[in-house]
Each structure stands twice: as C-alpha cells, then as structure tokens.
Design a protein that fits this description.
Length: about 200
C-alpha cells in the first residue's frame, strides 16, 4: 500500500457481476451500501457504471477517497464486510476490488477487454481538455492584468495548468465518462449513472 498523505487521492474500484434475475435486489443493496460508504470520513464520491459481461449485468463502482487511510478504513470495516456478506448470494464472481492510488479512474476497468478503444478515449479527453485550454486563459486574463507579478510566463502557465488539471480530474472527466458511457462501452447496452 502507498503511504497516505493529506493531498493523496485514492480510487477503489469494486466490480460485481450479478446472477440473472437478481438485478433489482442488488440495486437496492447497492443504493444502501453507497449511502453507508458516503458517511465515512474522507469519502469523496461514488460513480457506478453498469454493463454486461458474459451475458450477466456487471456493476463497477468507483469510490474516491482523500487518502489511503480513509480508503482502508472503509475497505476493512466490519460494516462493509457484513454488507458484502449479505450480497454474496447475488454475486457471480464474488467481490472484486482494485485500489488505484493517486490517479483518477476514467477509462480502465478490472476487465481489460471491457475498456473502450483508445481512439474513443482520445476523443473524450480532447472534448474535455480543448474547451478548457481555450477558456481558462481567458478567465485568468483579468487577474493577470490586475496583478502583474502573476503574469510572468512560469507563474501564469502554472496557474492555468493547475486550473485545467483540477477541473479535469474533479469534475469534467468523471462527468464526461458518465455522459459518453454508452458510446465508450464495447457493449452498446452499457450505460452509466452516478449514485
């Protein structure tokens, strides 16, 4: 495990393939466990991507935490252990988890074959970053005019890049991957939602 720090971001990916006919009770259970997880300190949000794998519905939950310690607290909690135990009869492959330190979960999943083609990843990434590279410098313009010491090449480039990165990581890419989920998915029946 990576060492925790106050600026660390950790993503926990949980993948469940659901037995036929048990989608509704699983979704009720999922709604409950998402609510429980969100109450844990350091929890930053959950996205759920729904698809199909070998004919069975697959739910990939992406939980973000502000540190490894916060993620471990939830992952090792008795509460989570008991809740997963309640759902075991619905899971075709058990409770599959992957910890992704530092980086944000965007395109990759536990099943490499379910990842979207790279050209689609590039299109979505370009769709997100291009408007920001055009608009963020304009937004900073008045600030640079008022405070000349911020308008130097290194400082202004740092501030613009930092703004773009924060927007991309925290808001734009999670939103874009949900919005374009059906198009990104190799299975046209896939779609995504935020819980």
């Amino acid at each position: 495990m990576t060492r925790s720090s106050s600026t660390e971001l950790v993503t926990l990916v949980v993948k469940h393939r659901i037995k036929k006919g048990l989608e509704r009770p699983y979704e009720v259970w999922l709604h409950h466990i998402v609510g429980v997880a969100s109450a844990y300190p350091g929890h930053l949000g959950v996205d759920v991507v729904i698809g199909k794998n070998q004919g069975l519905p697959t739910y990939t939950s992406v939980l973000r935490f502000d540190s490894t310690v916060a993620m471990q607290r939830w992952l090792g909690s008795t509460e989570r252990h008991n809740l997963v135990g309640d759902a075991t009869y619905m899971l075709a492959d058990g409770d599959l988890t992957e910890v992704v330190p530092i980086k944000e979960f965007w395109f990759s999943t536990l099943d490499e074959q379910a990842n979207p083609p790279r050209w689609k990843q590039a299109v979505v990434t370009m769709t997100v970053i291009l408007p920001l590279t055009l608009l963020v410098p304009l937004a900073w313009g008045p600030v640079f005019s008022m405070f000349a010491w911020l308008s130097g090449y290194l400082i202004s480039t740092f501030l613009i890049t930092l703004t773009i990165v924060v927007f991309v990581v925290y808001w734009m890419m999670p939103f874009a991957t949900r919005l374009f989920s059906a198009w990104l998915s190799p299975d046209p029946q896939n779609y995504s939602r935020e819980s």
